[in-house]
Specification:
The protein has about 400 residues and is an alpha+beta fold. It folds into 3 domains: about 20-180, Bira Bifunctional Protein, Domain 2 (BirA Bifunctional Protein, domain 2, 2-Layer Sandwich); about 190-310, 3-Layer(aba) Sandwich (Rossmann fold), CATH 3.40.50; about 325-395, C-terminal domain of ProRS (Translation Initiation Factor IF3), CATH 3.30.110. Helices cover about 35% and strands about 25% of the residues. The chain is built from 10 helices and 19 strands. The strands form 4 sheets. The protein has a 10-stranded mixed sheet with strand order 1-2-8-5-4-3-16-19-15-14, with helices on both faces. β4 (about 115-125) and β5 (about 130-140) form a beta hairpin. α5 (about 205-225) crosses α8 (about 295-325). It binds one RNA strand of 78 nucleotides through α6 and α7.
RNA sequence: CGGGGUGUAGCUCAGCUUGGCUAGAGCGCUUGGUUUGGGACCAAGAAGUCGCAGGUUCGAAUCCUGUCUCCCCGACCA
């Protein structure tokens, strides 16, 4: 390929079609025998897309994503991989981001065009709109046939490889923000927080400032010395001591809340007098979330326990909100009203046709977010056409 | 590219309908003092070609014409 000298960019930008084309073009040269399988390539790629309107974090013209591509000798193994990766994404969303998700399959209309089927995780944001947070595709032999990728099996026969692909993107950051944050600012779940604990020594004169800062440093050292475990990804806790005495304590408290640091420790002269400190938890902003008079000797272990509790509470709170705004619904008239206000996820019977899906989307702006794995497994009648339905599917307005 | 909105101090905005003293407020900034456990207080002060160009008028941030900027809604892709 030659670049037009007059159109050459300072920083070269390569625009390509869907990743599968370049991956499978390459796999053709790598796969000859069943011994070459399974094959997995993961890449981080900066993606550029034409977007009529962008939305911070959720729909940017350029974004970073992770994408994996696998090739397998059997259909069953590829399908297993598709489900396995969806589970990896579910665990990351729920256990690290504290963002509850529904798992399920996309409808024919919503799946990736090159896929046999698409699985997804779907989250509910605080405005009750849905966010697709990750997808995992079973591609069948579609790309192997398109790029003629065949391998010789144990039996000596030529067979087309079976494929999957899956990915998540920086969109997850938008999801994290829109799941947990409040009017005081960002709320970051402890397991992903760049700073776990901020310690604010307080003092109105140099003597007090020096004394409280020393205790703050000691506590910071205690926290960093705590045993490493899986909760922190086997890394040490990150602790910041805020010595900005120029600003008022109240200003500093608010500023750290704005940044979403999960736990703040306040150490002032009064605490020093009683060998104690104050713990403030970000998931309960303001004075309500404060634990007064925590003995300094216990502070490190109490903070460690508090971080774990906050992680759980954030997930439970988000899940309770999601569940409180997810309803079974059977009347299309009622659906049309409730999708407008209050909104949320609606479990409804659908006859499985594109026509009905399109009609609902056109009339209500709601789409099928997923055909859930674990919900609504009952037969019924489509809320629009009355035709038979095998199970309920999730409708919502989405980003 | 259509429809709607917007542009005034570093930031957020009021003033425009119905032209009229020297264009305002909050926040921020500077100086001095008092303060410091939830975004400190008092006082003084600096700071604006009212997006740009033209026009109407004795007089334009305000009315008219043109032009530009940014934002919102619209392409079935979330």
């Amino acid at each position: 390929m030659e670049v037009d000298p007059d159109a050459k960019l300072d920083e070269e930008l390569i625009v390509r079609p869907t990743s599968e084309t370049i991956i499978w073009h390459t796999y053709k040269n790598w796969i000859q025998s069943y011994r070459d399988l399974p094959l997995l390539i993961n890449q981080w790629a900066n993606v550029v897309r034409w977007e009529m309107r962008t939305r911070l974090f959720l729909r940017t013209a350029e974004f970073l994503w992770q994408e994996g591509h696998t090739a397998h000798a059997t259909e069953a193994e590829a399908e297993e991989e598709t489900h396995k990766m969806l589970e990896v994404y579910r665990k990351f969303a729920e256990e690290w981001m504290a963002m509850p998700v529904l798992t399920g399959a996309k409808s024919e209309g919503q799946k990736f065009p090159g896929a046999v089927y698409t699985l997804c995780i779907e989250a509910m944001m605080q405005d009750r709109k849905a966010l697709q947070a990750g997808t995992s595709h079973f591609l069948g032999q579609n790309f192997a046939k398109a790029f003629n990728v065949q391998f010789q099996s144990k039996e000596g026969k030529l067979e087309y490889a079976w494929a999957t692909s899956w990915g998540v993107s920086t969109r997850l950051i938008g999801g994290l923000i829109m799941t947990h944050s409040d009017d005081q600012g960002l709320v970051v779940p402890p397991r992903l927080a760049p700073i776990h604990v901020v310690i604010c020594p307080i003092g109105k004169n140099p003597e007090e400032q020096k004394a409280t800062a020393e205790v703050a440093d000691k506590l910071a050292a205690d926290l960093v010395a705590l045993p490493r475990d899986e909760f922190y990804g086997y890394d040490t806790m990150t602790v910041k001591v805020d010595r900005d005495f120029e600003k008022s304590p109240g200003f500093r408290f608010n500023e750290w809340e704005l940044k979403g640091v999960p736990v703040r420790v306040e150490i002032g002269p009064k605490d020093l007098a009683s060998n104690a400190c104050v713990l403030a938890r970000r998931d309960q902003p303001g004075k309500e979330g404060k634990l007064m008079g925590v003995p300094l000797a216990e502070a490190a272990t109490r903070i460690d326990a508090l971080l774990r509790e906050i992680q759980n509470k954030l997930f439970e709170k988000a899940k309770a909100f999601r569940d409180a705004n997810m309803h079974q619904i059977d009347s299309y008239e009622e659906f049309k009203k409730k999708i407008e206000a209050p909104g949320g996820f609606f479990l409804a019977h659908w006859d499985g046709t594109k026509e009905t899906e399109d009609k609902i989307a056109e009339e209500t702006k709601a789409t099928i977010r997923c055909i859930p794995f674990n919900l609504g497994k009952e037969e019924g009648k489509c809320m629009v056409t009355g035709n038979p339905s095998k199970q309920r599917v999730v409708f919502a307005k989405s980003y």
